[in-house]
Amino acid sequence: MAVHTLEQENRRLKWMMLAPALLFIGVMIVFPILYTGYLSLTDAFGAVNADSSFIGLLNFSDALGDLRRFWPAVWRTLVFTVAAVALELTLGLALAMLLRKPFRGMRWVRTIMMVPLLATPVAVGVLWLLILDPTTGIANYLLGLVGIPPQPFLGSVAQSLPTLILIDVWQWTPMMTLLLLAGLSTLPGEPIEAALVDGASAWQRFRHVTLPMLTTAIVTALVLRSVDALKTFDLIYATKGPGGGSSHEAETLNVYAYGLTFDYQEYGLAASVLVVFTVLIIFIVVALRRRSAKASS
Amino acid sequence: MLKRRDALRILGLSAVLGSGSLGLAGCGSSGDGANGPLRVALVNHVWTSAIRERIAEFEDLTGRRVLVSTMTSDQLSSTYNVKLNASAPDLDVMMYRPLQEQLLFARNGWLTEFNDLVADDSEYDWADVQDGPKDRVTIDGRIFGVPIITERPTLYYRRDLVDAPPTTLEEMYETARRLHSPDTGLHGFTGRGQRAGAVSMFSSYLYSHGADFIVDGRSGVGSPEALAAYEYYGRLLREAGPIGATNMTLEQITPIFAQGKAVFAIDADAVYQNFIDPATSTVGDRTGFAAFPAGPAGSRPFNIASWGLTINAFSERRDIAWEFIRWASGPEMTLRLQNEGVPSARTSAWADEASLTAFPPDLAESMAAGIETGVGADRPDVVQVGRARDIVGRPIVASILGDDVAASARDASEEFDEFLVRDARQRQL
């Protein structure tokens, strides 16, 4: 009978405990990524399991050479992400600064702020679609009361993307506020008090003391929200439908890949777009983290 | 228990979607075997509402439990894509759009063939089904489903604002333009304007201008007649329609008309109840119906089998699935449903004078006119219908926005020609 040492038993137990998690990661993350990579090199069309041929990097050259849909979608993805996250960071920081000190009714304000976060993006999309309907929505009715002519909002090629950015800001600014509030609550009070004693103004205390100390929290919030904003799909699909609207005015990479899969059944091409999209996300996250590391040092 | 190959397919689709949750939709329960409950997927439609009320009758008749899922057409398409890609057996009867999905689904081997089923069943009376709808569910002599609903476009108009319905498209434009008054909240016309969504309704304008999507296997959307149709439709919506028309589908135009904010609307006759239902419409008692107005080539609306029923090729309950279909779409049930205002695909139902009284008289006249002059398709007859609609729908949007329609139609026509070459290769079953 083999005798195992305590160390060997511990090692075995460790792997047994880890096995379910490793299996889950393998099945739900590693395999789909590998399969996506495989599909991106084939001309899979119609059905995933239909006969398909290996075509090398042809899907990638088709996607990267597509000036009609792919590159405009890349541009819109970046515009949506940068604009939404920048606005959310600015507003979130302002709100966090306002809410950092206790005040009467603070609990109510924080609870109300949480409401948009609780709704699913599809529900949010449908809600705003009704509010912003150019003919029957309440938004144009309210604008009419103050003499502003009716706006097409999501019904317009020009206004769709800005409107979607504002809806995203409405939904996710509270999360940014909560993350930054958590960061603010961990800051030491002494440097700020010292600056106050030295006669620094409120803006100088914020700009030169609070903000540098908050860098780590800001970068963490930025990375989390940027990755999330890059992947936004439900809100756009619920409000603009397939293709991101009639002129593809709100078609981001996610919406484009979904359309290739479900509307066009172009599984190979869709997989190549998703591979490029994943590389883009990794590039952005690495860039943000490097910038954060530089700022911290 | 999922087979290894099925599991790989499900995971593979998850990978393509980039979303595990969507892919997992295909991993629901297994089929439960031949004696399990019958699973029926239906779209939100007046036919669905009518049949759902009667499903208990089928359960009593056969002793089999029926589980019904009802979804929007987009949700239904996505569900089919995920489940059928995974060869999922937990879906038996499928409501589908023969014009949109049949070629692709049949090519993928996802549909059961009906030839033997309908041929061996004299009671079902396959000969009674109208020829046009029958053609739509048949590919190279192979039948892949049964048609259950037909539809044509009808002109919805406000009888209190218009003395008599316009008989030509130009007359409709003139009247719509004259009565268009956005400041008072009244629009002359409302209709679909979304790129791909508008294509089916636009087809009637195209045909009535003497054009077609495909002519002799090549793109027809660059012809002078097609250009005239694009220009007309865009002008109508731009100059007499609500703002934001390029984002509009049936979901938007129904409330606009029902709330008294439009003089004219043109959409499918099968959904007429949504326009006049007293529960949601303020103008139901003042709504009239008329045949599709004539264009330069006459009145040539589409007349199509918009929805059909088919059986999942991976179903474990094909026998009971066919029992359900023959019960739900047989001569007797078809007549009962038409008596409740659901336009059918059976000659016997239309021949029954009593069933026509279910519709408002002017709507019945409009339907009869559409059946007489109608064209059997409302979108390009291709494998990748979604992609084709995106291409031929582009000039509609350009026209509504007041852009260069000729350039847009030329560009769309070139792309559509390239698309058709590839489509010819793909349509081999």
TrEMBL record, chain A:
Query: What highest taxon heads this organism's lineage?
Result: Bacteria
Please report the stretch or stretches of sequence annotated as the ABC transmembrane type-1 domain. 74-286
Q: Which PROSITE patterns match?
A: ABC_TM1
Membrane topology, record value: Multi-pass membrane protein
Keywords attached to this Swiss-Prot or TrEMBL record, sorted alphabetically, are: Cell membrane, Membrane, Sugar transport, Transmembrane, Transmembrane helix, Transport
Question: Mind telling me which residue stretches traverse the membrane in this protein?
Answer: 15-35, 73-99, 111-131, 267-288
Q: Which Pfam families match?
A: BPD_transp_1
Q: Which GO terms describe its biological process?
A: transmembrane transport
**Location, primary (coarse class):** membrane
Q: Which Gene3D superfamilies match?
A: MetI-like
Give me the Gene Ontology terms describing cellular component: plasma membrane
Q: Which SUPFAM superfamilies match?
A: MalF N-terminal region-like, MetI-like
InterPro entries (alphabetical): MetI-like, MetI-like_sf
**Subcellular location field:** Cell membrane
Q: Which family does it belong to?
A: Belongs to the binding-protein-dependent transport system permease family.
- Under what name is this protein listed? Permease component of ABC-type sugar transporter
What's the source species for this entry? Answer: Actinoalloteichus hymeniacidonis
UniProtKB/TrEMBL annotation, chain B:
Name the Pfam families for this protein.
SBP_bac_1
Which superkingdom? Bacteria
The record ties this protein, via InterPro entries, to: Bact_solute-bd_prot1, SBP
Query: CDD domains annotated for this entry?
Result: PBP2_TMBP_like
Signal peptide limits: none
Protein's name according to its UniProt entry: Carbohydrate ABC transporter substrate-binding protein, CUT1 family
Q: Which organism is it from?
A: Actinoalloteichus hymeniacidonis
Organism lineage reads as: Bacteria, Bacillati, Actinomycetota, Actinomycetes, Pseudonocardiales
